[in-house]
């Protein structure tokens, strides 16, 4: 009897731990900034006009926007940033920019710039013109997607 209930308790604890791990892995948050796609939008275009980084848009809408951002449609509801994880200080990359020059112009460091833009490699050799970077002077972790839309 005791052994049985100990097993049941252990199973319940394990189930609770697993449930919490699953919740963490699929963390969702409230949207701080909604956006409705208009005809002609591209991901980088939306990012440039709305002050959102290319990484943040892709990350917040992971599962909605595909990897090469070829599935946007007019009228589509997107979220630009999650409450508490919303970088709104941005820079649109142009030819000749380097991570160091972007960081210095924004008053931040290359280390923080790389932390805020995980899509940029550590050598900063994969920037492309028109891409939008978060240039906040502190690290803003973006690790949630938007709460499922109705
Ligand atoms: C997201 O990042 C925040 C801040 O670093 C952290 O407290 C939280 O545990 C993270 N959540 C997930 C699901 O990784
Ligand atoms: C964003 O849109 C959702 C769904 O329509 C709504 O619940 C939420 O209040 C909106 N958030 C903001 C900040 O407008
Ligand atoms: C984007 O940031 C710039 C510079 O801070 C500001 O002038 C502009 O109003 C912002 N645009 C939006 C849509 O927030
Ligand atoms: C989207 O989610 C997948 C699976 O969790 C992850 O591997 C990928 O890095 C995410 N992409 C972005 C841009 O956050």
Structure description:
With 150 residues, the chain is α+β, with helices and mostly antiparallel strands. It has one domain: Roll (Membrane-bound Lytic Murein Transglycosylase D, Chain A). Helix content is 36%, strand content 15%. The protein contains 5 helices and 6 strands; from the N terminus they run H-E-E-H-H-E-E-H-H-E-E. The chain has helices at 2-25, 43-50, 54-60, 99-106, 110-116; strands at residues 28-29, 31-36, 77-82, 90-92, 132-134, 145-146. The strands form 3 sheets. A two-stranded parallel ribbon has the order 1-6. Helix 4 (99-106) packs across helix 5 (110-116). The protein starts with a helix and ends with a strand. The relative contact order is 0.20. The site of one 2-acetamido-2-deoxy-beta-D-glucopyranose has 4 residues, from loops. Keywords: Chitin-binding, Signal, Virulence. Residues 1-19 form the signal peptide. It comes from Ganoderma sinense ZZ0214-1.
Structural category: alpha+beta
What low-confidence regions span 5 or more consecutive residues with pLDDT below 50? Answer: 1-26
**Which hetero compounds are present in the coordinates?**
2-acetamido-2-deoxy-beta-D-glucopyranose
Main beta sheet: strand number and arrangement? 2 strands, parallel
CATH topology: Membrane-bound Lytic Murein Transglycosylase D, Chain A
Helix percent reads: 25-40%
Distance between the termini: 47 Å
Report the strand count: 6
CATH architecture verdict: Roll
Q: Tell me the count of domains.
A: 1
Number of distinct helices = 5
CATH homologous superfamily identity: LysM domain
Protein name: LysM domain-containing protein
Keywords: Chitin-binding, Signal, Virulence
Signal peptide: 1-19
Domain LysM: 33-80, 89-135
